[in-house]
Amino acid sequence: MRRIAVMNQKGGVGKTTTSVNLAAGLARAGQKVLLIDLDPQGHASIHLGVEAYGQVPTIYQVFTGRKKLTEVQQLACENLWLAPANLDLAAAELELVDAQNREVILRDAILACEDQGAFDYIVMDCPPSLTVLTINALTAATEVFIPLQPHFFALQGLSKLFETTALVKRRLNRQLKVAGIVLCLYETGTRLAADITDDLTRFLEESDPQSPWAQARIFSSRIRRNIKLAEAPSFGQSIFDYAPKCTGAEDYLGLANEVLATANQATRPHAA
Ligand code: ADP
Ligand code: MG
């Protein structure tokens, strides 16, 4: 089971769009996928048409030990399950401040259901921060995907991501690796996009072989700017249901195929 954390502490870079459409792309290829919404804003849940109000169980209850993961996940479309989130999750950050082993709650919840769930992929949509929810995703993950919008400030936040992933690898999850960077909101043919891509390539080439970034690459599927991708969430549909012929669907299908093509080297996470 491959477990992908989609993270970047910046907002608006394409994390949720990538999480939802990558998960949907893998599901369409016949993989069993669980998408875990880890953002209290609940954007991934809304994107898949799930409104997590009232009695609907959410990932918050998993973090507070009240429910198992299998009790909160729901089928969103064929082969794709969702563990939804809502604003309650913001409270979890505070409630967990003093909890023991608070960084491994999600990993343990996934392991506890591993035999029943039989998912091929778990995709985790992280919030735009490096707080305990993101640390949980990194601890539970086998690999990290970093969506990035190629503009002038894009590289600024990378060193912080570098530090955080290295720290989690050292302390909590020896097998953690950054699989790569997904270029989102890509403007084809612009000088700036090409320059930033070159800078990124250099940055990755220089990373320490011991670091989780040693094998990181830029995914060759570039996610072009496409208005359909921005419209799909308000219809509660992945891009494949909303506009299957648009460039956004083409780009995310390409990314899903790239992910499927990389050998599955994932193993069970071991306890820290
Ligand atoms: P994050 O989860 O990192 O905050 P989102 O995935 O929510 O980022 O994307 C931010 C905004 O940009 C959203 O309104 C989303 O619909 C839009 N968006 C994301 N990717 C694209 C794209 N390739 N083309 C057009 N709009 C996009
Ligand atoms: Mg988001």
TrEMBL record:
Q: Which organism is it from?
A: Planctopirus limnophila (strain ATCC 43296 / DSM 3776 / IFAM 1008 / Mu 290)
InterPro entries, per this entry?
A: AAA_dom (IPR025669), DNA_Partitioning_ATPase (IPR050678), P-loop_NTPase (IPR027417)
- Where, if anywhere, are coiled coils annotated? none
* Record's protein name: Cobyrinic acid ac-diamide synthase
Ranges for domain AAA come to: 1-178
The highest taxon in the source lineage is Bacteria
Q: Do you know which PANTHER family this protein is assigned to?
A: P-LOOP CONTAINING NUCLEOSIDE TRIPHOSPHATE HYDROLASE (PTHR13696), PARA FAMILY PROTEIN CT_582 (PTHR13696:SF52)
